[in-house]
Each structure stands twice: as C-alpha cells, then as structure tokens.
Amino acid sequence: MIGYVTVGTNDLDKAGKFYDALFAELGAKRLMDNERMVGWSTAEDQPLVLAIKPQDGNKATVGNGVMVSLAAPSAALVDKLHAKALSLGGADEGAPGDRGDGFYGAYFRDLDGNKYCAFCNI
Prior knowledge:
By secondary structure, this protein is an alpha/beta fold. It has one domain: Roll (2,3-Dihydroxybiphenyl 1,2-Dioxygenase, domain 1). It has helices at 12-24, 75-87, and strands spanning 4-8, 29-33, 37-41, 48-52, 67-71, 91-100, 103-109, 115-121. It starts with a strand and ends with a strand. The relative contact order is 0.22.
C-alpha cells in the first residue's frame, strides 16, 4: 500500500551517507539520486524511503508525531540497525527491546531529527 515515504533534510550529502550505510543493513540501495532527493529501496517494485530537500525552499523540520518504521526479519537485525544509526551520529529514542505483544522495537533519530523505529515480531 505504501509507495514511498519522504523525510526532510537540510544536508542531502550527509543524509545520503547516513542512509547508504544504515539501509545497507536491510539490503537496500539507492534507486533514485538527484539534486533534490535521494531514494532507497530493496527492489524497484518495493516502497522507497526518500531524503528530500523541501519543495518550498524552506528549512526542513521534523514533523511532530511522524515516524518511519523499518521492518526487520529478526531482533538481532533490529539491534544492529539501532547501533548502526547511533554509530552514524543518530540519536537514541529508545533502546532495543520487547515492547509487549510480540513487538520488538528500537527507536532512533537521523541526523536531521527524523524519528525511526526498527522492529520485528517475535
């Protein structure tokens, strides 16, 4: 159902490097790259995550209540994604752990403050 998700950035080069390294852990690669946006996916027919400079030319800001969730096949990969995001300069928003009802998640913010959850069902 989801075609793509965009997150704003004020530094496309830094965002590109952050996401290249982070999304490689999920087997994703760049499928779109231009002067305004960079997009990653695991395949051409799968949803994309795009880091994008705002169309209106104003500074990118973080949406209150907006979060992108990254599905992982295992708790070990959730742990790895969280650690990778932090090692790349991201901020911790909640250490990996069982959140109840079989949901295992970890929360972090990217370099622009966009919030992510890496999760799996255990």
